[in-house]
């Protein structure tokens, strides 16, 4: 005999109530779990923020407020803010180079001068900055070294040798010394990356010795004191174009490589942005750059004309055989060529021809280019 309808209803109510209580219990557990997770995340974030705050607060304070120790600190000519901050940290004058650098940037502090300073670990950031602006500097320039644009590292070594007591061999040994290069990479980490150590790169520091005139205030500076201002100047120049580099997806190494190719192809009268555009246009269609200076660099020679047999040299730097950029710069590039590498002209040309009078002629097709070869080169011979 079946149960009465009233009993069925009562039974359903009980089941419904039990399920409701069960769901409420599960909801309470879920809420507890969510609350616990939220508290853990909140505590973690608070710990990170609090720890970061305490770290930065500590880094802004003197290294040792009670120290009377005097430290002789030398800031080389051409040192970038990053290099200065690193020197101060290494000498124990500031706790954290990055914090000091960002502090000076936030406060818009500039005008730091090269020279020799007597600093102490008890100095505040304000005192350090004040000293770096007014420190004792050797006033008389003893000699200067001028590094022209478009010079290769071996040529720069010769220029330095002519102005100092160092031999070309000593200078090149220093410029290729792995331990010294590692020290420079630590000093300029944003500029000198692992790209310079690639197995196909001829000289790691090729293209990183910026063309400029460098004054020296003592008779016999060390090789480090001669080389590092050139690296520091490159670091400064590259640091000023970070936004444009990001837009072009350049690293410092690839930017200096492109700029060096433009520099070596340019003449006094040429518009470098047009040569830059030709290189970009070729790379867009997967066409080799086919630039003669890369062949000469591969051959290790300097001559007026590249022969057809030279174009066949099996070398990573030969852009007739290999597509894209060379493994590294083939010379140092000036600010104009760096700017051209970042801002190519709006032209469609795939070819250019440098005539003997210094003018450069551009063509969109090979036939047009060959016509100009006949017009501007063969008639001049």
TrEMBL record:
Q: Which GO terms describe its cellular component?
A: plasma membrane
- Tell me which Gene Ontology terms the entry assigns under biological process: cell wall organization; peptidoglycan biosynthetic process
Q: Does this entry carry the keyword Amino-acid biosynthesis? A: no
| Superkingdom in the source lineage | Bacteria
Q: Which chemical reaction does it catalyze?
A: a peptidoglycan chain = a peptidoglycan chain with N-acetyl-1,6-anhydromuramyl-[peptide] at the reducing end + a peptidoglycan chain with N-acetylglucosamine at the non-reducing end
What's one Pfam family the UniProt record gives for this protein? YceG
Q: Which family does it belong to?
A: Belongs to the transglycosylase MltG family.
Question: Per its UniProt record, what NCBIfam families does this chain match?
Answer: endolytic transglycosylase MltG (TIGR00247)
Name by which UniProt lists this protein? Endolytic murein transglycosylase
The beginning of the lineage is: Bacteria, Bacillati, Bacillota, Bacilli, Bacillales
Q: Which gene encodes it?
A: mltG
